[in-house]
Amino acid sequence: MFKKTAIALTMASVFAATSVMAATKDAPKAASQAIAPTIAVINLPLIMSEIPQTKSSQQALAKEFEGRENELKKLQDEGQKLAADLNSGKITGDKATEAQRKLAQLHSDFKLKATALEEDSRARFSQEQVKITSEVQKAIDKIANERGIQLVLREGSIAYTINALDISQDVIDMVSKAKK
Predict the structure, then answer these.
(1) Average pLDDT of each block of 10 consecutive residues along the chain (180 residues)?
(2) Would you indicate the residue range of the signal peptide (predicted)?
(3) Which of 84, 180, 177 has its CA nearest to residue 136?
(4) Which of 42, 103, 120, 127 has its CB surrounded by the most CB atoms within 10 Å?
(5) Helix, strand, coil abundance in the chain, percent, nearest 5
(6) How far from 152 is each of 7, 45, 174, CA to CA, in Å?
(7) Is there a contact between 120 and 65 (Cβ–Cβ < 8 Å)?
(8) What is the dihedral of CA 156, 157, 161, 164, to 10 degrees?
(9) Is CATH 3.40.640.10 the classification given to domain 40-178?
């Protein structure tokens, strides 16, 4: 009886050891498969420069602020002409004092309007960028979902990648089609 129990215990321990070894042998393989994400890369500056929404936004903003830029150019030209007349001695006496005051006023108006234009154009540019970036993000999300991509990285933040992981052109194509 003792022999049968000893043999049974030996067999049980061998079986248990074999099962543990098999489980630990497959564990790294299973773990690596479970945590290996699918990855893609995007080149955001390339995407932003290639999509038609960026170009049309730039054209719209240029048109929107064209009148104010022309007004600034006129003020600048008028101020330069007046300064040249004062420096050349064409204007003298009381008229020179009056011209200097007018020049100071032109300079003040120019600075105020230039600052306002810069602030307004920067704000509008930011608004447009937010809209375009949102469209790009939607395209990235859609492509990632369709292909089962779990992680999308910006190309500038990684040291090395292969071209097969780059989905930038796909994003450009999708956002460009959305424009039409």
Answers:
(1) 47 45 50 72 96 96 96 95 88 87 94 97 97 96 96 91 92 87
(2) 1-22
(3) 177
(4) 42
(5) 85, 5, 10
(6) 57, 15, 16
(7) yes
(8) -70
(9) no
